[in-house]
């Protein structure tokens, strides 16, 4: 059983060497030091791997021939389906890299037939869209259609390379990310942005249904991050209201000391320009964009039933 991972920082476990994820305070919960995960600890990939009873697959940038038995992680923080605000390998390039490994017989047909793929992309595509359009949603539905169309082609391509079980994440409620709620002092989610995510997911669910129909069996399974985030946030909000010592789930654990700094920032003298909450284990968000390990664990528990569908196909 191997796991092949494509996408962005929600599933990257160490491919982006020059990112903050390789600096403190990232990784303080697990593995105890920065490891290239965009969190204080484990991310979605780690939980999916544990569900499959394997070790988290090795990041492609750190690949060693001795550690190929669990698959490979091609995901790269900040990237998307298309080109994004960072210069990293988008999903097409990640799949190209995977294809080269197959051509080099690093992975064989039987290897792939018993493998699973995890795909998480689109958040950074929307980030670029909104940065370029001055936060306006004008033209966003056309953008969503082109995005889902390309994502669908990517999924089909992963399947055509020999993987018969593919889990694709639905877009999270982007209006609940701290970057979108800080202007309300982390009090409420941005409904307009969440509607964009809902429309994206609606189209993606249709595309996945069509792909499964085309192939004649359910190769593709969706992991509903949208509702998993919302229901986790709602239950944490209720707990926070009942006990104010618990964290407001919309508030990030790690933040820059001012708007010119971010989680992991240091000044030219090396002094840290960020603060970390007392108990990351009580937070939902680690920073402005990413869940903490605690957040990911709660989300993972809510998508487990979908992961079981993949496992059933394995029997």
From TrEMBL:
Protein name: Putative triacylglycerol lipase
Protein EC: 3.1.1.3
The entry's keywords: Hydrolase, Lipid degradation, Lipid metabolism
The keyword Secreted belongs to this UniProt entry's keyword annotation: no
Molecular function terms from GO: triacylglycerol lipase activity
Enzyme class: hydrolase
Family indicated by similarity: Belongs to the 'GDSL' lipolytic enzyme family.
Alphabetized InterPro entries for the sequence: GDSL, SGNH_hydro_sf
Pfam families: Lipase_GDSL (PF00657)
Source species of the chain: Medicago truncatula
